[in-house]
Amino acid sequence: MTTLVLIAFSGCQPSTAVFQSAQLPTVQPTAQPLPPPATQPPLPTPLPTTAPTATAVIPPSPTPQPLYIAVPPEWETAVSAAAAAVSQPWEIILHAQPTTLLQSGRADAALDWNSDGLLIQQSPIVLAVPFTTYWYDTTQANADQILANGHDLVTVLPWTDLTANQRALRIDGRSPADPDYPLQNRLTLAAKPGVETAVSALTNQLTNQLTNQPTNQLTNPVISLAAVGDIMLDRALGVQLQTDRAFPFAQVAPVLRQADITVGNMESALGDIGSPAAKSYTFRAPPAAAESLALAGFDIVSLANNHAMDFGPDALLQAITLLNNSGITPIGAGANAAAAHAPTFAEINGLTLTFLSYVHVPVESLGFDTETWTATAETPGLAWADPAQITADITAVSPQADLIIVLLHSGYEYVEAPSPPQITAAHAAIDAGADLVIGHHAHVLQGVEFYKDGVIVYGLGNFAFEIDGDPETAVLHAWLDADGVRELAFTPAVIQFGGQPRLATPAEASAILQKIYTLSTFLSSQ
Q1: Last residue within a domain, chosen from 173, 189, 212
Q2: Taking the alpha carbons of 128, 130, 131, 137 in that order, is the dihedral positive or negative?
Q3: Is the pLDDT of residue 143 over 60?
Q4: Do residues 177 and 242 share a domain?
Q5: How far is it, in rounded angstroms, from Cα 375 to Cα 275?
Q6: Burial of 517 (0-12, 13-18, 19+ CB in 10 A)
Q7: Are residues 118 and 164 in the same domain?
Q8: pTM of this prediction?
């Protein structure tokens, strides 16, 4: 039963009434069962809908803020190229004193000379004196004093700026070409803390750029050349080398082999065929002498001299074959004029050297004339030092050459002053474009002339030669770059009894160098 409560309001007092609800009828289910629901066909299973996958959009990385590098003006091109090859942006500030900008906070890095930082490159600094000054060596302590206080005879400059009429003082015996030479101009890259990664990447690129930059380089390609005078491996030396191939040059070979290229004059026939010519002296080295030359480090030997055909044209051709088979290039002689005048090329450190060789000597006292050995279009022989022909040969080869070296067998025997034909031929070579003329024949040392843009070393005397006469000799060292001869130096030597050369003692070396400088002073005063 349901009870309802009604609340009625009458006047101010409510009255309450209670009602009894009536009984509601109960609905009974019918006796008939309900029919089963109609069977419905199954609904198809819906295929999943392929919705396109949304591509994630990665926001671009913020561009790094540029760093600032202070740079000397001469290195702007290289630094710009290096900066373009790295991810970190760099702004270049040109300044004569880059380190000051780094120290003041106006730059994040500085490329400068001899400051603290990462080494980019280094180049020797030299204490240069005039070539004819007799001052060869100094100590590290004295060098430091000269750098600090200067010296009337010394010019301090990069080795790349040295010219052939100057010499670099050795520092405790070390030359600028030696890896442990102590005076170095260092190009370094310094930076503030926190940018080490960026600076390291720039350093790698910068090193490559400065190394390959054609101008303003710290180090231009340099070639070291060694040259000696007359080599005659007959007589006692010819006997000795039959059982000891290294004997003729055993005491000087290390000096010869350390050069990039080594040249000399073969003052004899070479081989075992032919008959002696009708002349005052005939020399013929045994076939094994070619191996002796190779062991000593010779790369090129001249046959343009007054003894190469002492045993006839067939012997000359045999000598050429023996030398070639030993890895040595003969020049100045050949099967015909074209071969005798043919240049020899050598590619070293990216530069092309070209060698030519000629002979011009007087008629012998007994009447023999070396000029009769001049090669023709059909016959073997030598390259005669006709000035017009020298000019033509050098002019023809110049487009293919970075440097031209001429070997000249000329002069008067046992006379220190160059002969007029010797001077004429040497000057013709330089006038035509040769950079260096190296002479022999006089059997004595002669001076050096700095002629126009070239250098003429008139005579290196004998070298390995059993002969009466002056035993003083020297190995010429020339450092060459794309501009020509950068520097000359001499290693004094003495020819011993029997013809074998040895290095000079300090006292002997002093006298030999003094002679060369004195003779050179005389030439420069003419």
Answers
A1: 212
A2: negative
A3: yes
A4: no
A5: 19
A6: buried
A7: yes
A8: 0.83
